[in-house]
Write a structure and sequence with these properties.
alpha/beta, Rossmann fold, hydrolase, hydrolase activity, AB_hydrolase_fold, AB_hydrolase_1, Alpha/beta fold hydrolase
């Protein structure tokens, strides 16, 4: 009965993962079976129906600003369902303000940093950042650069070491290896210092799940869900984890 309740969304399939160092390192893009599994992504939204009671029971928000950052080639509208849910809980949830994420993280870290500082100055308190896939990469780097302006970061389906272990790596060419080297250097020299939650799924057919694991950031929390990559944005377990972490006390 319990697996059925999880399948329908009535119960959560999310679980904390503590010893990530014991898990395998990424060795390339996701397997073909996982990539083909992305075709089932629309089914994730079905679980939202069964999850309505538990999503409604999540802790109420304190009104602080939450900025949602879309994944690669995803329009800002892709995060609208999650933002609507967070606003119902009482958060000031907003899109990142730049439309579709066209895949220029260096530029986007610069411009989101500037926008975030303006928003934090306007609201008077640090913001939380929620990033999907490449959006999580941007959220991490903004938090690394401006920890005083960031309350916490939650990422899901995010390749923390660059795009080399994704099914779309070919679109990034030789730069994917450079991104991985830069990330390793930054993690060593300037680790992320704000509370960080990493959500990953072994069913991810776009980003190898092993590449989502953060083995460098002190105190990072990992949560495993069971969703395709595209389905993460409407997976009720992802929404519940985001809601629970946003409700945690500020540092």
């Amino acid at each position: 009965m319990t697996p059925l309740l999880g399948l329908t969304g009535v119960r959560s399939r999310a679980r904390a993962t503590t010893d990530v160092d014991a898990l395998a390192a990424p060795s390339g893009p996701p397997p073909t079976w996982a990539t083909l599994g992305e075709l089932t992504s629309p089914l994730a939204a079905v679980r939202l129906v069964g999850a309505v009671p538990r999503l409604a029971s999540m802790p109420r928000g304190d009104g602080h600003l939450v900025v949602d950052i879309p994944g690669w080639q995803a329009p800002e509208l892709s995060g609208a369902p999650l933002r609507a849910y967070l606003r119902r809980l009482g958060y000031d949830a907003r899109g990142w303000g730049f439309g579709t994420n066209t895949g220029d993280p260096r530029r986007d870290v610069d411009r989101l940093s500037a926008r975030l500082l303006d928003l934090v100055d306007e609201t008077g308190s640090p913001a939380s950042l929620v990033g999907w896939s490449l959006g999580g990469v941007i959220a991490r780097e903004v938090a690394r650069r401006h920890p005083e302006a960031v309350r916490r970061v939650v990422t899901y389906g995010t390749p923390v070491s660059g795009p080399r272990h994704t099914s779309v790596a070919r679109f990034f060419g030789a730069g994917s290896g450079d991104a991985e080297r830069v990330t390793r250097r930054l993690d060593a020299e300037s680790p992320i210092s704000v509370p960080l939650t990493v959500i990953f799924s072994r069913r991810d057919g776009v980003v190898a799940w092993q590449a989502c694991l953060d083995r460098s950031t002190p105190g990072v929390e990992h949560v495993e869900v069971s969703s395709t990559h595209i389905g993460l944005g409407v997976d009720p377990d992802v929404w519940a984890v985001v809601a629970e972490r946003l409700a945690a006390p500020a540092r």
